[in-house]
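Rotation project, supervised by the postdoc (A.L.). Task for the rotation student: set up a whole-complex structure prediction and record inputs and outputs verbatim in this book. Inputs entered:
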Amino acid sequence: MAIAELNIAPIKETPSLKARAYRAIKSAILEMNIYADETDLRLDERGLSQRLGISRTPIREAISQLDQEGFVRIVPRKGIYIIRKTKAEIHDMITVWAALESMAARLISKGADDGDIKRLRALVDQFSQDEVAAKTGEYSDANIEFHQAIIRMSGCPLISEITDGLFFHVRAIRHRSIFKLDRARRSIVDHKEIVAAIEARDTERAERLVRDHTMKLRDHVEQYVELD
Amino acid sequence: MAIAELNIAPIKETPSLKARAYRAIKSAILEMNIYADETDLRLDERGLSQRLGISRTPIREAISQLDQEGFVRIVPRKGIYIIRKTKAEIHDMITVWAALESMAARLISKGADDGDIKRLRALVDQFSQDEVAAKTGEYSDANIEFHQAIIRMSGCPLISEITDGLFFHVRAIRHRSIFKLDRARRSIVDHKEIVAAIEARDTERAERLVRDHTMKLRDHVEQYVELD
DNA sequence: AGTTGGTCTATTGTATGCCAAGTTAATGTC
DNA sequence: GACATTAACTTGGCATACAATAGACCAACT
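Outputs recorded:
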């Protein structure tokens, strides 16, 4: 009797309930525009447990993780509150972002291979200045994408890891006019200069341009975004 | 009838079992010199629960936090393993450290008041070059202290928060000859130059010196420390 | 009407039991 | 004796029950 050779793929391991709960809650928070209204936003363990159809334990573990990452705050016997970052905290986050991304630019200009740099050039050329005027909406994501590309190319996963968290927080306030038209236009110019510096392997210049570019965003937020 | 005015202080809130378990386990790991031997170091939920006299739940929450911070790794149905960082990971951590501390130096040279800078000068003067030859042992901590002072003075709590985690990891391998005599001597010189640049409010120079100083440590580890 | 103490409810913290999936040791077969 | 098989044990994941406390509500009393 021949043994049937079923062409089956290995069953991918099911992620733990904790992991799934974590993603579910986190993405729900991201889609919420938490800075839109003023009232305190609360999470309810048991409510989530019922809606997700699992027990409180994995929910608690997921929420505990979100607490540690600074997305929610657990107050014993009172509740779990979604955190709105203060202006000072956003300010600090963008500062850290600037520090890490400028280091990434430094690493790239020293170590990246030409293929990567070509791809970076393609990314920035894709958005010419007049196109952007029409579709600023898309720009916000393209902007983030450019920054993430630089960071990934640095070959330092830890930098990616840290900045991913920062981007998440910053993205939550994007509708508060962070990436407006004039800034978008100016950003394209900055990005082109950055790529040019990297292409020229001018480490110091690349680092400085990246830092200044992000610090300009910081100052913009400082000046125009109201949060507290 | 008068109301008695009892002179009482508010009852300080007792930290949760989770928080206490977290500190207990973390400090135990720190004191362990995990890089000393080769065997896999495992944690046991039930064992800890018995030894600490509490149930598994707060233990699990504490361990989950340590897992997220990168101190242990939870492998389902196998065990909880204390993590030894690879050389590449240490390398990345020091890179991030350099990026953040050089940003801190930048912020200080722009914004710190003269009192703070005086204290920084005192800190570095305290360890003259010949003293250090005698007590290199103490130097390691004084070294870290100097760096932490710079970071704290930056006025950016987020930078402190991130680097604290990095320091914890790096400290775990300090006995692996990271801070040896010749390096210690050279470090003092570097530190003095850094303070001088800050005193002169020379932002670019301060940033560069701090970065280069930490990157030298990175290269030193790269060259002399064996981990994997 | 206002205050005061009790009670009830909502909500998180903790303990404990069970389960599925590995690990290890014992056992049986050749 | 070597190897496959199975049984016992380990271990983290998850569910559930109970405990503790903050805050709302309420009734009684002044």
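Student's summary: Chain B touches chain A at residues 16, 60-61, 64-65, 68-69, 76, 89, 92-93, 95-96, 98-100, 102-103, 107, 156-159, 162 (CB under 8 Å).
Supervisor addendum: Chain B has a mean pLDDT of 87.
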